[in-house]
Design brief:
alpha/beta; Rossmann fold; five-stranded parallel sheet; 10 strands
């Protein structure tokens, strides 16, 4: 995805390309109180709807587990979260619009129950969320014109990751991350890979439960208008092949190297599915290779996935900015609620 008119005419592509600079210039300002509350509580609950939760929340949950962070981090959609006892958690609620109905209803319910540790994360000023949260953090990315959220997803995620890093007494190498994301977004995707995915009636994403593959599954619906599914962990090898068909596409995100031969045997050779990998090193499958930036690699995998989906959407002649049914704000809060 390069600086050519066939890409830049779409807000979606322009907003994706803004992401590296947003990451490069990111600073965690004014978060001392929030960090202290989280450290004292030892519990953090992250909520949001769709893209505001999948990658931002699951990414930091997975990374915190790898790092052995002594903080319990959980996530759920806001409606289900209303059924939980969150009294001992710091609750972080993300809504770019600041008007997402489910989020506002949850925050109001928490306030009515006497909860006083609610963090809002939004891209808009003077919103309902800001008026209710005990402390609100404003994203620097600005509003998005495309229906599919991109740059905001990355900034939400880096906010959470920087917040936990602050509690650990360290910072993140956002400059190296930004460079790697830019490379992933601008590298040329092999034409045969684009054709295979474009022809596929269904696209599966297989990978860790860290939000990357799941978020790309959602983006596939919004960008390519194709059916998609998220296969967590090694689910790909545990029965789903029974309903897979030849010609469908499977995109592996940073696959477990020990499982590649089995995937070839049962999925590529056995089913006849087209298997592609996004990884930091070559695999036995056609591979979109990206830079390894350690704990921040998930953002680079996500950026490479965006690149692939844009190429597929353009190959299919889709207007990337105008889905027929999907809405930018899925469910808007109204005062009567």
């Amino acid at each position: 995805m390069r600086n050519e008119e066939k890409y830049t005419k779409f807000a979606l592509a322009r907003e994706m390309m803004e992401t590296p600079e947003i990451l490069r210039s990111f600073k965690l300002d004014g978060a001392e109180k929030a960090a202290a509350q989280i450290e004292q509580a030892g519990k953090l609950f992250l909520t949001g709807e769709g893209s505001s939760r999948l990658f931002p929340a699951k990414n930091i949950m997975a990374q915190a587990m790898r790092d052995g962070v002594d903080i319990e981090i959980s996530t759920e959609g806001a409606m289900q979260a209303m059924e939980y006892d969150l009294s001992s958690f710091v609750v972080a609620a993300a809504s770019n619009s600041g008007r997402t109905r489910e989020i506002i209803l949850l925050v109001k319910a928490l306030l009515e129950a006497g909860h006083d540790k609610i963090l809002g994360l939004t891209a808009n000023k003077d919103t309902k969320l800001e008026s209710l949260a005990n402390q609100t953090f404003m994203l620097s990315c600005g509003t998005e014109d495309a229906v599919a959220a991109t740059k905001s997803v990355a900034e939400q995620a880096i906010f959470y990751q920087a917040l936990i890093a602050k509690i650990q007494g360290r910072s993140l190498d956002v400059a190296s991350l930004a460079d790697a994301c830019e490379d992933a977004l601008t590298q040329t995707i092999d034409e045969s890979v684009v054709k295979d995915i474009a022809k596929a009636p269904r696209i599966y994403f297989a990978g860790r439960n860290d939000g990357v593959a799941e978020e790309l599954t959602l983006k596939t619906n919004e960008i390519t208008r194709k059916s998609s599914d998220f296969l967590e962990g090694t689910y790909l090898l545990h029965g789903v092949e029974e309903v897979m068909n030849a010609g469908e596409a499977v995109i592996l995100i940073d696959p477990y190297r020990s499982e590649l031969e089995l995937i070839k045997k049962f999925i590529s050779d056995g089913v006849g599915a087209k298997v592609i990998a996004i990884a930091t090193e070559e695999t036995i499958f056609p591979t979109i290779k990206v830079k390894d930036v350690g704990e921040l690699a998930t953002y680079v995998f996500l950026a490479a996935g965006w690149n692939v989906l844009v190429e597929v959407g353009i190959a299919l002649g889709i207007d990337l900015d105008k889905p027929e049914r999907a809405r930018k704000i899925g469910n808007v809060f109204a005062e009567k609620d």
